[in-house]
Design brief:
Family: Belongs to the ZIP transporter (TC 2.A.5) family.
Radius of gyration: 18 Å
Transmembrane segments: 6-27, 39-59, 65-86, 184-207, 213-234, 246-265
Oligomer: single chain
Distance between the termini: 20 Å
Subcellular location: Cell membrane
Helix content: over 70%
Order of helices and strands: HHHHHHHHH
Pfam family, one: Zip
Shape: globular
Largest sheet: none
Membrane topology: Multi-pass membrane protein
């Protein structure tokens, strides 16, 4: 069975992928609203496929349908409760290109934000990302501790893929707060690494006290991810005139995850 060092390494690598999504802030003149909406759609497709093929189905293979569905309802309900308790920032994205994008007034408004407001926005965004990533890390840790190394590695791969567009989706509004590019990259990376590593270690250790937790934990992570998709990603990717791009990216993300899952399992 994988030791705790391996759990930290695998979940940490998956978390670091979040930082890759922040790299476009260094070339922000090339980022359009269409790309932003498509990134949200891609993340949504990856998350839905990961929920079904990486969490729900393996959970049902290792446990009962009722255990997985109970975890799913708890995970989805917990995410919604967390959103209510922590009213994190749903930033209004502004295009970086001149046409139809940020204006001089936008720049003046951003410059007028003081440090306290900027830090508050960053903390709110960080809280949102933590809510999204912690259940995924929990599932990785529980899978490793349950002796399901193959399932855990598949989860790590698909979560890492999902973290890239997820990181982009959060890096863009974070950059709009006026932070430097390096700080945006640093905070985005930490937002993926810290919750996933901490949650994976917690899940790994938890199995030592109560075995057979993977079905419930996988359902919990799947419920939280599905709630994120329908509560945030899909609504945020529509209504700006790029719904077709977001929908197409959703399908690409879903197919990509299924292919990766099949290749890794084989």
């Amino acid at each position: 069975m994988t030791d705790i060092g391996g759990v930290v390494t695998v979940s940490g690598v998956a978390g670091v992928a979040t930082g890759l999504g922040a790299l476009p802030v260094f070339v922000r003149a090339r980022v359009t609203h269409r790309v932003y909406d498509a990134a949200l759609g891609l993340a949504a497709g990856l998350m839905v496929a990961a929920s079904v093929f990486g969490l729900i189905i393996p959970g049902m293979e290792e446990g009962t349908l009722s255990a997985v569905m109970t975890g799913l309802l708890l995970g989805g309900g917990g995410l919604l409760a967390g959103n209510y308790a922590i009213p994190h920032l749903h930033a209004q994205y502004r295009e970086w290109l001149p046409e139809g994008g940020a204006t001089g007034d936008d720049a003046a408004d951003a410059a007028a934000d003081d440090r306290e407001v900027t830090l508050r926005k960053a903390l709110l965004i960080g809280g949102a990302i933590t809510l999204h990533n912690a259940p995924e890390g929990l599932a990785i840790g529980v899978a490793f501790a349950s002796g399901l190394e193959e399932v855990a590695l598949v989860l790590a791969v698909v979560i890492g893929l999902q973290n890239v567009p997820d990181g982009f989706a959060f890096a863009v509004p974070m950059a709009d707060t006026g932070m430097s590019n390096l700080r945006v990259l640093w905070y985005t990376t930490l937002s993926g690494v810290v919750p996933q590593v901490v949650a994976s270690v917690f899940g790994f250790l938890l199995v030592g006290f109560a075995s057979g937790l993977f079905p419930v934990a996988s359902g919990f992570a799947a419920g939280a991810m599905l709630a994120v998709v329908f509560r945030e990603l899909i609504p945020s990717s529509h209504g700006h005139g790029h719904a077709d791009a977001a929908t197409g990216a959703f399908l690409v993300g879903f197919v990509l995850l299924v292919v990766v899952d099949a290749v890794v399992v084989v």
